[in-house]
Amino acid sequence: EHASAVKQTPSGHLAVHCARCPCTPMFTNTAILGRHSEKTIREVHEAFIIKTRGVDKCVSEPSVALLDKEILFLEREWGGRT
């Protein structure tokens, strides 16, 4: 899924990053952390993961910004399930 995104969607975050950076994606060590049919939920989950795991572990920037109170709420709701 990630590998095809780099090849097929040159405007995607990962494809743009790969075009600009000499690094190589390690797809065998990559995991899909969540899926949802609603775009808003996907974006909130993405922002939560990037914020809680650290931007140094993520290629992308969050699509939405979350307040600290929202992060605390999501940590209580989602816990270690992300």
UniProtKB/TrEMBL annotation:
This is Tick transposon.
